[in-house]
């Protein structure tokens, strides 16, 4: 009979989270409540069990019991061999790759094994991911997953299966080695899976990055603050196979163009303050705007913006392609990449993209600093530089620019991922969608931190790019320029122009987000 089916997972595993076997605070009823007859009372008690009945000491005792059962060699830590043997004894057979992923996900001190605290943290984080996956599969929001929902979810990810194949997935799934026991996920034979069945089956089974998180938490594509040094975003299998990825990039490029144009006066003021401001010439924000308008009229506020917008497309395209190739070299798939691996791939991709378009960076600085009538346009500026200074002039400031990629991209990525994971752990219950204000706040904070860390290198880069355009300016190296600034202006001199740079972050992030969302709808991108 279908009702006779049962999970081969040990009761110790199934009852980890609370005495009745249901998760703490779960709003989803257990499978036994739907089987009818005499089982309804037990289902009711399971569904009503909450955090108030799960004492902290009892929870700790159960977790320690499970930990001790898995700790085969009794050394107080779980290695891959412990998990393989211990889970096998409990009826849960996992492949070596799965076990490596479990240890990799929970191993905070990077010693190749899990102590008790790491084990508990992994289980707690794991259940939250399982709940998000369950909610994303439960299209009907009825607390159960049926065959049609599995078909639709796999179709969204680019995998086409029949409803009969989906029913087989529901009916039973063989895990571990081919000679291992068959574990039934659909315990009560209803051809649906509720939360408890889902959790019990997938407990201590690695969960990859959730497509829903990748969909909602894009950062580099959406937010443009004028410095394209961030680590590129990931795209789901569905976005790749349906061609939505390039629409996201086009929308992001358009948003960046509008955002940079709207904040161009602040960006030009920043460049002027980086190059001309000093102790003897203490340029303020109002004075800087007044000087620009007096010298060239209101239109002069946008000098250098044309080339700044033009370089978005080639830089974004080159960086994305380079990132994908480097990512394949580092790991077999996106889920295997850790934060430091993403940083490495993103930094290398940024370096390749910056090297390719760096002459446009020099042109942007020279155009922003030009006086009225000095150049007739971008091409005239490029010809003058090439004729008077040679090809090497197009790579002035290249070294500090490359060195600035690591602190900017690293801190931006670390802060954004920290804020994202904190929100997901505390507030993500039914969806990974953070909402517009949380997303804008995370993007603003991470971009600000990244810019603050790399700003001295950005200032030195800009001064080296502008050397030939400043009369009487000596040719100095990056090291010499750092020494000169510290000697004549002090540490504060390395942060000239920081005020207008920070002033443009919030409007730049907000404008790029609004334009990005509107362009997505125009291009037919499904926001979900």
TrEMBL record:
Main localization, broad class: mitochondrion
UniProt-listed GO biological process terms: transmembrane transport
Residue span of region Disordered: 21-46
Coiled coil: none
Record localization: Mitochondrion inner membrane
Positions of Solcar repeats: 243-329, 337-422, 434-522
Protein's UniProt keywords contain Calcium: yes
Topology in membrane: Multi-pass membrane protein
Ranges where the EF-hand domain occurs: 58-93, 125-160
Biased segments, Low complexity type: 21-34
Superkingdom, natural source: Eukaryota
GO-annotated cellular components: mitochondrial inner membrane
Protein name in the entry: Solute carrier family 25 member 25
């Amino acid at each position: 009979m279908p009702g006779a089916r049962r999970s081969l997972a040990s009761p110790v595993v199934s009852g980890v989270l609370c005495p009745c076997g249901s998760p703490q605070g779960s709003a989803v009823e257990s499978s036994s409540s739907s089987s009818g007859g005499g089982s309804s009372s037990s289902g009711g008690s399971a569904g009503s069990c909450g955090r108030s009945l799960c004492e902290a000491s009892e929870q700790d005792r159960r977790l320690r019991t499970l930990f001790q059962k898995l700790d085969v060699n009794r050394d107080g830590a779980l290695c891959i061999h412990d998990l393989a043997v211990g889970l096998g004894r409990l009826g849960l057979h996992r492949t070596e790759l799965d076990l490596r992923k479990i240890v990799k996900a929970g191993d905070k001190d990077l010693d190749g094994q899990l102590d008790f605290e790491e084990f508990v943290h992994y289980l707690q984080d794991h259940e939250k991911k399982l709940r998000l996956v369950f909610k994303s599969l439960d299209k009907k929001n009825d607390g159960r997953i049926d065959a049609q929902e599995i078909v639709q979810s796999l179709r969204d990810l680019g995998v086409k299966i029949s409803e009969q194949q989906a029913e087989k997935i529901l009916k039973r799934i063989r895990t571990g080695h081919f000679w291992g026991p068959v574990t039934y996920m659909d315990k009560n034979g209803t051809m649906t899976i509720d939360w408890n069945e889902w959790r019990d089956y997938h407990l201590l089974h690695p969960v990859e990055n959730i497509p829903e998180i990748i969909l909602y938490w894009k950062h580099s594509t959406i937010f443009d603050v004028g410095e394209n040094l961030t680590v590129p975003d990931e795209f789901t299998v569905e976005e790749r196979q349906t061609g939505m990825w390039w629409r996201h990039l086009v929308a992001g490029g358009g948003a960046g163009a509008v955002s940079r144009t709207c904040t161009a006066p602040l960006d030009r003021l920043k460049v002027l303050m980086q190059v001309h401001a000093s102790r003897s010439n203490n340029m303020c924000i109002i004075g800087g705007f007044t000087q620009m308008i007096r010298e060239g009229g209101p239109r002069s506020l946008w000098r250098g913006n044309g080339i700044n917008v033009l370089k978005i497309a080639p830089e974004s395209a080159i960086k994305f392609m380079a990132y994908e190739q480097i990512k394949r070299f580092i790991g077999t798939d996106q889920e295997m990449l850790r934060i430091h691996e993403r940083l490495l791939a993103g930094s290398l991709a940024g370096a390749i993209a910056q090297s390719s378009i760096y002459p446009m960076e020099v042109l942007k600085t020279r155009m922003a600093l030009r006086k009225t009538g000095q150049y007739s346009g971008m091409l005239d500026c490029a010809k003058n530089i090439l004729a008077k200074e040679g090809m090497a002039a197009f790579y002035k400031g290249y070294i500090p620019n490359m060195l600035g990629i690591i602190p900017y991209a690293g801190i931006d990525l670390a802060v954004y991922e920290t804020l994202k994971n904190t929100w997901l752990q505390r507030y993500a219950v039914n969806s990974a969608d953070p909402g517009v204000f949380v997303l804008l706040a995370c993007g603003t904070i991470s971009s600000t931190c990244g810019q603050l860390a790399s700003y001295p290198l950005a200032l030195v880069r800009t001064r080296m790019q502008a050397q030939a355009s400043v009369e009487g300016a000596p040719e100095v190296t990056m090291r010499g320029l750092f020494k000169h600034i510290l000697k004549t202006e002090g540490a504060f001199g390395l942060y000239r122009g920081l005020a207008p740079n920070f002033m443009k972050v919030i409007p730049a992030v907000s404008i790029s987000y609004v334009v990005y969302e509107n362009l997505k709808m125009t291009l037919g991108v499904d926001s979900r």
